[in-house]
Amino acid sequence: MDKFVINGGNKLYGEVSISGAKNAAVAIIPAVVLADEPCVIENLPKIKDVAVILAILKHMGAKVTKIDGDDSRVEIDPRGITSYKVTCEKLVGDMRASYYLLGALLGKFGKALVPFSGGCSFCERPIDLHLKAFETLGAECNILPTQIELTSDKLEGKPIYFDVVSVGATMNAMLAAVKTPGRTVIDRAAKEPHIVDLANFLNSMGANIKGAGTDVIKIRGVEYLHSCTYSIIPDQIEAGTYMAAVAAAGGNVLIKDVIPEHLVSITTKLRDTGTVVEEYDEAIRVIRENDLKSCNVKTMPHPGFPTDMQPQFVALLSTANGRSRVMECVWESRFSYLPQLRKMGADIIDNGNTAYIYGKQYLNGAKVRALDLRAGAAMVIAGLAAKGITEISDIKYIERGYEKIIDKLTAIGADIRRVTYLESLDDEI
Ligand code: UD1
Predict the structure, then answer these.
(1) pLDDT number for residue 163
(2) Do residues 32 and 125 share a domain?
(3) How far is the CA of 165 from the centre of ligand 1 (A)?
(4) Which of 246, 359, 353, 345 is nearest to 294 (CA)?
(5) Hey, whose CA ends up nearest to atom 5 of ligand 1?
(6) Are strands 296-298 and 70-77 parallel, antiparallel or unpaired?
(7) Structural domain tally of the chain?
(8) Where are the alpha helices (DSSP H) in 293-361?
(9) Catalytic residue selected from 39, 88, 120, 123
(10) Nearest CA to ligand 1 atom 26
(11) pLDDT of residue 96
């Protein structure tokens, strides 16, 4: 029950390095289930979600070895995974991305039995498209009381069309198809950087996947996936969160180890607020000296503005001059955190999938909750920019997705501490 305590108002200066991408790591690790030889994965972020998915693979029989004692480099030998059944219900229920085990086990064994996944639940998160893709390849899907069961007599590559663009369904279809005989064509595929990363990882083991990063992904099934060493891309959303933090608090920070092309939509919107963003080969400098200007943001699948940056931007725009409009077009509802920002004095009206933000000169520190991972990041950003002390509870959500957030923010001048529940100023929120 620890909390983050932020004494807001410090401008941020210096350098911060971005870790490997969470959403790539939590798909690539389950993808190792499909490999016929051990694989080395590098640049893994040191976060709870990665620890949980590695623990699940271990429980399934994989051998997981840290290389040189470094959590960010592990060798995973999946040859001990001999059953299509996943029995560690609690671990699977701890994270959303455990649903990638469905596609991976179906691709390996032709069947899968996986407990329901958990994770951030800012709104209902269906998996009907994942199941539809498995069925198209020849699987039968049964929703049991606490598990999903996939069975098949024979899987065969087929055309798969998604009527909604889905990251998870695209990844799961790729996992199921990579060893399935024949040709699978995924139409209206998601194009996020982590989709390309998963395809690159599978291809570096000998898979035949073309077109990842476009609307159409073509997969020719292969029989064998050999060993490889693969380094995960930098985290687009972690980078975007630090960019928004610097813009909100003010200052001048070099954000290193990023792929600037992955950040274009975020960079564009930050520039609309009057923030200066300089792009280098593998770094971005964010400078904010003047008052923030309001702007309008609409979340869309990649290459649009990422929904996973929406709460952080709403926090940022809470102190911009004028009225901003933020439309959430990926998730049905993702504004449940707004009352937390209002506790800090933010003036926001929401109507359906749209929030109107009337910028205030400053926010005030308050006791707030991290309702989910990105909503929690928004509270950190608001706290950094606010006057006075902000206490954030439920930080377990934030720590699921941000490696060493306290160390990284402290190194650039933020006054932020992690305190135990008893030490915090008041238990009541
Ligand atoms: C992934 C990310 C999440 C991000 C989201 C959108 C991971 C682990 N999580 O989640 O952080 O917010 O992409 O960028 O990578 N949908 C359906 N049926 C389905 C699946 C999805 O209708 O079977 C809908 C959803 O309700 C949502 C939209 O599709 O409206 C996009 O969801 P999706 O891209 O699948 O999100 P996730 O993969 O779960």
Answers:
(1) 94
(2) yes
(3) 8
(4) 359
(5) 167
(6) unpaired
(7) 2
(8) 310-317, 338-343
(9) 120
(10) 125
(11) 81
Strands (E) located in 235-366 = 251-256, 276-279, 283-288, 296-298, 323-327, 347-351, 354-358
Residues 301 and 419 in one domain: yes
- Give the atom of ligand 1 at the shortest distance from the alpha carbon of 131: 23
Domain housing 32: 22-231
Count of other CB atoms within 10 angstroms of residue 267: 20
Of 231, 265, 297, the residue that ends a domain is 231
Weakest-pLDDT range from 119-133, 177-191, 196-210: 119-133
pLDDT confidence bin for 222, thresholds 50/70/90: very high
42/174 same-domain check:
yes
Percent of the chain with pLDDT over 70: 97
Token reading at 235 = 């985290």
CB within 6 Å of ligand 1 — which residues? 23, 26, 96-97, 125-130, 164, 166-169, 190, 307-308, 330-331
80 & 186 share domain: yes
Protein residue with least CA distance to atom 29, ligand 1: 166
Q: How far is the CA of 300 from the centre of ligand 1 (A)?
A: 11
Residue 428: predicted pLDDT: 46
75's tokens: 């060798």
193 and 181 assigned to the same domain: yes
Residue that is last in its domain, among 231, 254, 286: 231
Range with the poorest average pLDDT among 251-260, 345-354, 413-422: 413-422
Q: Among 136, 164, 337, which is best to mutate for testing ligand 1, by the most ligand atoms less than 8 A from CB? A: 164
Residue of the CA atom closest to atom 17 of ligand 1: 126
| Burial of residue 133, with CB atoms counted within 10 A of its CB: 0-12 exposed, 13-18 middle, 19 or more buried | buried
Structure confidence by residue, pLDDT tens digits, 123-132: 567 899 999 9
Taking 90 as the threshold, does the pLDDT of residue 119 lie above it?
Answer: no
What would the mean pLDDT of 257-268 be, rounded to a whole number? Answer: 98
Q: What is the pTM assigned to this prediction? A: 0.96
Q: Is 120 a catalytic residue?
A: yes
- 24 Cα: distance to centroid of ligand 1 (angstroms): 14
